[in-house]
Write a structure and sequence with these properties.
About 35% of the residues lie in helices and about 15% in strands. It has helices spanning about 5-20, 25-30, 50-60, 85-100, 115-125, 155-165, 170-175, 190-200, 215-235, 240-245, 245-260, 265-275, 285-290, 305-315, 315-325, 405-410, 445-450, 510-520, 530-540, 560-570; strands at about 30-35, 65-70, 105-110, 130-135, 140-145, 145-150, 370-375, 375-385, 395-400, 425, 460, 475, 495-500, 505. Helix 4 packs parallel to helix 5, helix 6 (about 155-165) packs antiparallel against helix 7 (about 170-175) and helix 8 packs across helix 11 (about 245-260). Strand 5 (about 140-145) and strand 6 (about 145-150) form a beta hairpin. The protein folds into 4 domains: about 15-140 and about 180-350, no CATH class; about 145-175, no CATH class; about 370-520, Glucose Oxidase, domain 1, CATH 3.50.30.80; about 530-570, no CATH class. An 8-stranded mixed sheet has the order 7-8-12-11-10-9-13-14. The protein has a 4-stranded parallel sheet with strand order 2-1-3-4, sandwiched between helices. It has a two-stranded antiparallel ribbon with strand order 5-6. The chain has 20 helices and 14 strands. Bound molecules: FE2/S2 (inorganic) cluster. FE2/S2 (inorganic) cluster binds near residues 77, 114 and 190.
């Protein structure tokens, strides 16, 4: 607490100020639950935040505690320059520091748009106060010409149709107003839905909190219930988030990521959350899980449906019921008890098509594979559940774009030397290079090929991709080119081999030639002159470590600051 030297005087002073807001001594003597408000005119996904804050406040008061609402920054995916990923760590710092700075016994964090839940959970784990997470919930679906539409898998599909000349100017404008028909987060299995489900499976949010549509009354009741739980854990002083984010719980989350056809961004965020709790996310284990755990959830972009359908099918509790053989159900959850208590019973399961039974999966393997090879010594990922089967094993000539700007400038050039069999390579789009790994990994099909009907090509980058996108797209190549990763060495015309079954990504150029190129290559990224951009540049970790800042990752208690510095520079290549 803020101190003025004399403890009793400090309390006297703090009380004097808070009484300016009209609080009684009885109110101030109650357990205090902070409620994080992330409403912002720039964040339409959080358009229901005010109602959820009010409901959580009600839940806290009905339980005899005192709610105190306070703001943190809010990040919307489309209104955060240069990328929302750059700002995720800033929001995590804001959340952690404001939870720690102000008097409270527990906290409710309300978020949802892509980077916000990861940021809030990272901050909450580090702050170490009992926490309940309330996702804002997914949008309901849109409709157009008898077809259901969802942000933003259908945005890409329909825009691609417009680029190819199949949808005219008037219709694409009409579609534009129907893709996001309500407040809430993108209702496909994008990053927001993925992270909401991961949050629920980690036990940080209440059952069904991931999937109740944002505009539904049930969502408001869930926020009220979360307020009640927050009041209870404020009194108990437990569980703190790190007690829930255990290795076993993280493994459960990896199982879920594979089974839901989750966003590739999810693996970065999960690595960052794990790091805050002092654990390393094992990408090899994640890949191994993907060989055993099939995709069960039939949502776009891997499947056909949307989050409201997932909810009506039974949501996460039903998914848990299908995945029991792969999960550790003994992990604790925020309301007390274990994950086992949240599993939907067979008798409660009705007939539906969205959450497939384990013996009738949507895809026989999990959604995401982790690749290694001389192009990605520390790994790369591909969401093969949303890729073209014909391209799972492919060798093609590299067509290299130096930067995102270079790609934007040349991709549609009629003179670009490119065929459908080539491999599009984008570099300098990683955590430090771009910065913040823009979602540019979804390299568009060159216009002249799209007009010929080419729908997919192998694409490789150190960037990210929206969880709502699809295609044979290799992402998160680590280490990134801007810090000297091998992606920097690829030249136009080099043969590149992708073999998803073997989990390999290779540049078919001999080692001596690559060594020569490496000796002649210098990282080109400029160090920003000042401010948060400079902090980010100097401290961001690579994708396989979650792109957190090196100084925010939890260290073993015995580490001295010098040890921490040494290990940070050792892992941050
Ligand atoms: Fe907010 Fe998609 S833009 S979740």
């Amino acid at each position: 607490m803020t101190s003025y030297g004399d403890e009793a005087f400090s309390l006297f002073l703090r009380k004097a100020f808070i009484k300016a807001a009209g609080y009684s001594d009885d109110a101030l003597d109650r357990p205090i639950v902070g409620i994080v408000d992330t409403a912002s005119d720039y964040n339409p996904c959080h358009g229901n935040a005010a109602a959820l804050v009010e409901a959580a406040r009600r839940g806290v008061m009905l339980s005899g505690a005192l709610p105190m609402v306070f703001p943190t920054i809010s990040i919307h995916e489309s209104f955060a320059h240069p990328t929302s990923m750059v700002l995720r760590n800033l929001m995590a710092i804001d959340t952690e520091e404001m939870v720690r700075a102000q008097p409270m016994d527990a906290v409710v964090v309300i978020g949802g748009c892509d980077k916000t839940l990861p940021a809030q959970i990272m901050g909450a784990v580090s702050a170490g106060l009992p926490t309940v997470v309330v996702p804002v919930g997914p949008m309901v679906v849109g409709h157009h010409k008898g077809e259901m539409l969802g942000a933003c898998t259908d945005c890409r599909r329909l825009w691609a149709g417009h680029r190819a000349g199949a949808i005219d100017e008037t219709e694409i404008e009409l579609v534009n107003g129907r893709l996001a028909p309500s407040v809430g987060t993108c209702m496909v299995m994008g990053t927001a839905s993925t992270m909401a489900i991961v949050t629920e499976i980690l036990g940080l949010a209440l059952p069904f909190a991931a999937s109740i549509p944002a505009p539904h009354a049930e969502r408001v009741r869930s926020a009220e219930a979360s307020g009640r739980i927050a009041a209870a854990i404020a009194v108990a002083g437990a569980p703190v988030p790190a007690a829930l984010v255990t290795p076993a719980a993280l493994r459960n989350a990896m199982v879920a990521l594979q089974a839901i056809g989750g966003s590739t961004n999810g693996i970065i965020h999960l690595a960052a959350i794990a790091g805050r709790a002092g654990h390393a996310l094992d990408l090899v284990e994640f890949d191994r899980i993907g060989r055993d755990v099939p995709v069960l959830v039939d949502l776009k972009p891997s499947g056909e449906h949307y989050m409201e359908h997932f909810h009506h099918a039974g949501g996460v509790p039903r998914l848990l019921g299908e995945l029991v053989d792969f999960l550790d159900l003994s992990v604790p959850v925020v309301e007390g008890g274990t994950l086992a208590g949240r599993v939907m019973k067979t008798a409660e399961m009705h007939e539906q098509q969205i959450i497939r039974p384990i013996d009738r999966p949507l895809k026989s393997q999990g959604a995401i594979a982790v690749l290694y090879g001389n192009l990605c010594p520390r790994g790369a990922v591909i969401k093969h559940s949303a890729a073209s089967p014909a391209l799972m094993r492919h060798t093609g000539r590299a067509v290299v774009f130096e930067t995102v700007a270079d790609m934007a400038q040349r991709i549609d050039d009629p003179d670009l030397d490119v065929t459908a069999d080539d491999v599009l390579v984008l570099r300098n789009a990683g955590p430090r290079g771009a910065p913040g790994m823009p979602e540019a990994g979804y390299i568009p099909i060159p216009k002249k090929l799209a007009a010929q009907g080419v729908k997919d090509m192998v694409r490789i980058s150190d960037a990210r991709m929206s969880g709502t996108a699809f295609g044979t797209i290799v992402l998160h190549v680590s280490p990134e080119s801007a810090v000297g990763g091998p992606l920097a060495l690829v030249r136009d015309g080099d043969p590149v081999n992708l073999d998803v079954e073997m989990r390999r990504l290779e540049l078919l150029v001999d080692d001596a030639e690559l060594a020569q190129r490496a000796a002649a290559t210098r990282p080109t990224v400029e160090r920003p002159a000042r401010g948060y951009a400079r902090l980010y540049h100097d401290h961001v970790l690579q994708a396989d470590q979650g792109c957190d800042f090196d100084f925010l990752v939890a260290r073993p208690a015995s580490s001295s600051p010098e040890d921490a510095e040494g290990s940070a520079s050792a892992i941050d290549i």
